Amino acid sequence: MTRILIVDDHPIFRQGLAMALEEADDLTVCGQGASAEDAITLARSLQPDVVLVDLSMPGGGFAALRAIHDEHPQIRLAVLTASENGEDVMAALRCGAVGYVVKGVDGQALIEATREIAAGQGYIAPALAARILSEMSLDSGAGDISESLAADEAPLAHLTLREAQVLELVAAGLSNKEIALRGDMQEKTVKHHMTRILQKLQARNRTEAAMILRKSRGG
Fold first, then answer.
1. Is the sign of the CA dihedral 19, 25, 27, 31 positive or negative?
2. Residues in the chain, pLDDT under 50
3. Partner residues linked to 6 by β-bridges
4. pTM, to two decimals
5. For the purposes of burial, counting CB atoms within 10 Å of the CB of 148, is it exposed (0-12), middle (13-18) or buried (19 or more)?
6. pLDDT at residue 135, rounded to an integer
7. Domains of the chain, earliest start first
8. I want to staple 14 with a disulfide (CB 3.0 to 4.6 A). Which of 8, 197, 208, 217 is the partner?
């Protein structure tokens, strides 16, 4: 059973969210809070598997993410917010979040996203991830891939083990479907991993991500 802590300063929304999650047999809401202070205190006392945090709440969602991640790195953190700002997404990831869910998602999609977050696979709302990557491409123009590397001396160090494995297979020329079969995953899970990989490496596409891997090895 995956235990979830929900922190949002709108009680009606929070309760509705809890009801939606409780419809899944493998998910249970172990606590609710309304502020960053609540999030930090309840995470410490309840030790949930997943914490869903709103960004715009008393004390600030980013502060809550940083504090919980520093104290309890094993807890999976996710943002559930109305913000579709790309900068908020990147800031949340830097604060330790592995998931970014936009409010308004239907109950089943929320359940599936929470399961993926609990499994450490990472999740960003697909439509949002696609738009952010498109904006990154437009902003970066046609610059050399070395510009991405310059932003971080060791970008690959930020990948999880599973993300690194997926990137290895991408660099080997495998498609998402082939990677899913090789790694015993669903194809949509591979897509979510790719979203995280591209965000972390600041790569515009699969080819650039593979180039970063090869360049790191002197290839």
1. positive
2. 137, 140-153
3. 32, 52
4. 0.65
5. buried
6. 60
7. 2-124 (3.40.50.2300), 130-216 (3.40.50.2300)
8. 8
